[in-house]
Amino acid sequence: MTNPYVWNEVNPQLFYGRDALLQEMLTGLVSSPRCSFGIAGGRRMGKSTLLRRLETELNAKKTSLQSSGLLLIPIYVDGLSLPRPLSASDIWTYLFRALQRVSKELSQEENLSLDFDRFKESIRPILKKHPRIIVMFDEIEPILVHDNWANAFLSHWRALLSNTPNVSDYFTAVFAGAREISALRRDVGSPLMDILEWHSLRNLDFEAACRLMEEPSHYRWSDSFKQRTFQENAVFGVQNLFCRFWSAKFILRQCISVLYSIGKRYRFFCRTKWSRHHWKGR
N or C: which end of the chain has fewer CB within 10 A? Predict the structure, then answer.
């Protein structure tokens, strides 16, 4: 069995303690009236896991919603994977490329460079299908550091989500990040401050932390061990600790296997009573 607690990979199946928030987001992003979200959380607090789990759940709903007449288009944007140097045009073009992959009605031109206005005009054909386009920005900091265009970019998103006739009805979004997102929430001049539902990710509660300790490993720990682990480790600390446990367990198994193999060979040589001279010759 592979290590379920791998520390440097996002695993949407390793999802604990955020179920109520996930359901709120699924309802708000898909249903009417629409709702978009701002998610703040420190490093290793589970933002990417939340968004990847959200993406998984949205993709699972696509078929059933399409049969009822709603074309659902989730688009995940990893801020850390965007090109450098970065411009607003890069992001609008990236979003258009994602829409191209699900709609033959859109222009298939290769060499595109779109600003906000061209983006709005270019997506008109797909809007005739009355879709729900859900854009999930994970790690938005690489966007917000660009003082020369970041505020205008957020203003365009305000327009896209709330006051662009015949366009806004088809868009919802999630903006996730750390300190910069928290600052946007407090900034009365922020274009997004009053149009998003804001949430801050906190450490897991004891019940969720215990599930994280036991369910992926299929092992039941003592209550005293769980209590101490919970008290001394934050949400990401629990995963990191158990990742190390699992690795140590694997190494121990390998050592036992090697020792067992050596023991078998030793017993074989003892049974056959090979001479020391014969053994050296071999």
Answer: C
For residue 270, what are its two tokens?
Answer: 């003892």
pTM for the predicted model, two decimal places: 0.81
The upper half-sphere exposure of residue 130, i.e. CA atoms within 13 Å in the direction of its Cβ, equals 6
d(CA 139, CA 10): 13
What pLDDT does 167 receive? 96
Furthest-apart CA pair in the chain: how many Å? 93
Instruction: Tell me how far apart the alpha carbons of residues 72 and 57 are, in angstroms, rounded to a whole number.
Output: 11
Helices marked H in the chain — which ranges? 19-30, 47-67, 88-100, 116-122, 124-127, 141-144, 150-162, 179-186, 206-214, 223-232, 235-272, 276-281
Q: pLDDT category, 122, cuts 50, 70, 90?
A: very high
CA distance 52 to 11: 8
